[in-house]
Backbone:
């Protein structure tokens, strides 16, 4: 990443720049995406918006496609993050090969004298063009970014109002030339022990130490209006009426990425489609009659007939513009069907298909609960960052993101709409488990008291959605809790037995009680590195390995280090967790592994509740599971 000065225009950057740090491509569409705050080697920075990306990320080699996801998000393609190009013999990189970023927060603190301020008042820019240094120490002491920022629910983000806070209650308000110092009483490590004082205020009445202990209350900054600042776009939106809240710079609620994802499944995953996709940027502007002649060159390169290439191109176009609008629910149904079938497409012109799947019957001991096991030995997922929210996550399906941005509930990545979004490819493997539908239905019918427990979570989830202004496109049901809770327990067991870290795995849920019934889960490698991409998950699908690991998963689900408190958890007391019996000792996973922010979980649906008012789905299997473990 390279720093863009705040005063720099959105024109061509200089050819050579000093890098401020590095992040992985996949992180630019997740935790370190546009609008996030990143702590790098040379300070705290924020990736800039799409307008700045367009100056450096426009090469065809950086374009990727996933037609179904493009259709849902309303874009023509995605672009990978740039890869830095080092200039030989120097520490600099080509400006066009670095993602642009801006320093944020602007306020810094000198670690020696604890004066806080900004570039020019009283700090100066260091020789590397990125860090700041304190002039009071001969320029030898580098400053650190302050810990606190303020944000509103519309995504605006600004520096903490240090000058206003330091002069609260002072007659005459802020002094003419404030000089602030951040200090600590040294009595504890709490925020209440921190204070800010203005050293320029000469009279004792004005020179008061303002504690930061109350700064994080919901109404602590009443009287300070949001300035509508969007650092990633370097602009301000006027007339924001949202109340601002103080946040810690590195807190997770500073940036909740709105990420859309889709699996590459046939026909888009076939080799012919990939060949055509590589030429899409040229083909889309060609008249229909001229397509065969344009594809003739591609035909010679790969040794494929023009008619086949033309048919593949028309299939791609039909996915994007043909038929009813594609929704996330329909896309999941398509993936559910693909994962439930054998698929081994041929290699064409040296291009390998992106999806390969083999299905098996479940082991005998599990056949009552599962009816199909899939070994997905070749899998590609495309993720795209479409926007983000602050303070609270804003769940929204990909097809509704544009509407949420227009309503101000999700922050945009650009000042004006673009035909592309930042994307990343995750290639790996997975194991698919499909629950037997008739067994799930019978379990729900045989345990009517289960509906009351689920209704509590559904009511709370609906209340939160209404309070925070987002629409849910699903309902919490026993089927959802069952599949989701099992997925978490299974991932935890895989990480214990097979050497995968839980953060390297990810769940993809296929659950529906309305229309097309679905009850399945795909556990796949959710990290772009090499971990888990060498056949480890696929190997688990063999009966002699799958049966014991599932049985041990259930045996461990029967006990939790926080029992009996965990299992006796009243769903009515779950608050924003929207979960029943679920804690860090039994079901919770790293946030990157879960689709639903570690919510909508309940271990009781697997093993039964503490009062034995309903049976767990695997209740009859538990004695055998304990014996196997």
Residues:
């Amino acid at each position: 990443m390279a720093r863009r000065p705040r005063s720099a225009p959105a024109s061509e950057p200089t050819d050579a720049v000093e890098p401020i740090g590095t992040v992985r491509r996949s992180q630019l569409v997740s935790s370190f995406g546009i609008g996030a705050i990143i702590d790098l080697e040379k300070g705290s920075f924020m990736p800039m918006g799409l307008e700045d990306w367009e100056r450096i990320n426009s090469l065809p080699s950086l374009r990727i496609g996933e037609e179904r996801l493009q259709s849902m998000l309303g874009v023509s393609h995605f672009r990978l993050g740039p890869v830095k190009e080092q200039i030989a013999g120097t520490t600099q990189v080509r400006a066009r090969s670095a993602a642009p970023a801006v320093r944020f927060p602007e306020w810094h603190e000198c670690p020696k004298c604890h004066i806080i301020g900004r570039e020019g008042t009283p700090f100066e820019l260091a020789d590397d063009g990125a860090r700041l240094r304190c002039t009071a120490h001969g320029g030898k002491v580098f400053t650190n970014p302050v810990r606190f920022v303020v944000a509103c629910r519309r995504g605006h983000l600004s520096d903490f109002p240090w000058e206003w806070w330091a002069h609260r209650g002072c007659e005459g308000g802020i002094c003419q030339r404030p000089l602030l110092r951040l200090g600590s009483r040294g009595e504890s490590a709490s925020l209440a022990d921190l204070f800010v004082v203005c050293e320029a205020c000469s009279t004792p009445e004005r020179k008061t130490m303002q504690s930061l202990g109350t700064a994080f209350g919901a109404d602590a900054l009443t009287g300070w209006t949001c300035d509508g600042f969007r650092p990633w776009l370097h602009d301000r939106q006027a007339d924001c009426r949202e109340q601002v809240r103080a946040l810690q710079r590195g807190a997770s609620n500073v940036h909740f990425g709105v990420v859309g994802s889709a699996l590459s499944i046939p026909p888009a995953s076939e080799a012919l489609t990939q060949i055509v996709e590589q030429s899409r940027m040229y083909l889309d502007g060609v008249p229909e009659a001229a397509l065969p002649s344009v594809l003739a060159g591609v035909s010679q390169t790969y040794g494929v007939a023009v008619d086949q290439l033309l048919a593949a191109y028309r299939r791609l176009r039909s996915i994007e513009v043909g038929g009813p609008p594609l929704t996330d629910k329909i896309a999941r149904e398509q993936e559910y069907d693909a994962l439930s079938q054998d698929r081994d497409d041929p290699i064409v012109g040296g291009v390998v298909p992106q999806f390969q799947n083999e299905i098996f019957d479940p082991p005998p001991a599990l056949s009552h609960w599962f009816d199909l096991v899939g070994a997905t030995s070749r899998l590609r997922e495309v993720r795209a960052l479409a926007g983000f929210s602050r303070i609270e996550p804003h769940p929204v399906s990909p097809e509704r993101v544009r509407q949420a941005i227009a309503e101000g509930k999700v922050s945009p990545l650009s000042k004006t709409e673009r035909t592309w979004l930042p994307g990343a490819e995750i290639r790996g493997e997975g194991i698919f488990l499909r629950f037997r539908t008739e067994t799930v239905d019978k379990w729900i019918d045989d345990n009517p008291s289960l509906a009351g427990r689920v209704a509590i979570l559904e009511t709370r989830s609906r209340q939160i959605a209404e309070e925070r202004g987002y629409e849910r496109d699903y309902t919490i049901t026993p089927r959802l809790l069952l599949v989701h809770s099992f997925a978490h327990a299974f991932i935890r067991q895989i990480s214990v037995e097979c050497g995968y870290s839980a953060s390297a795995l990810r769940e993809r849920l296929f659950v529906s009680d309305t229309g097309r019934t679905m009850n399945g889960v795909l556990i796949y490698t959710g990290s772009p590195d090499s971990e888990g991409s060498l056949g480890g998950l696929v190997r688990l699908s063999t009966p002699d390995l799958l049966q014991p690991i599932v049985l041990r998963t259930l045996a461990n689900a029967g006990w939790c280090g926080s029992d009996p408190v965990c299992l006796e958890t009243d769903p009515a007391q779950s608050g924003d967790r929207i979960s029943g019996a679920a804690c860090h000792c039994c079901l919770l996973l790293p946030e990157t592994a879960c689709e639903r922010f570690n919510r909508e979980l309940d271990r009781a649906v697997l093993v039964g509740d503490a009062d034995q008012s309903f049976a767990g789905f695997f209740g009859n299997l538990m004695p055998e599971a304990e014996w196997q473990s």
About this structure: The first helix runs from residue 50 to 53. Confidence is low (pLDDT under 50) at residues 7-13, 622-629. The radius of gyration is 27 Å.
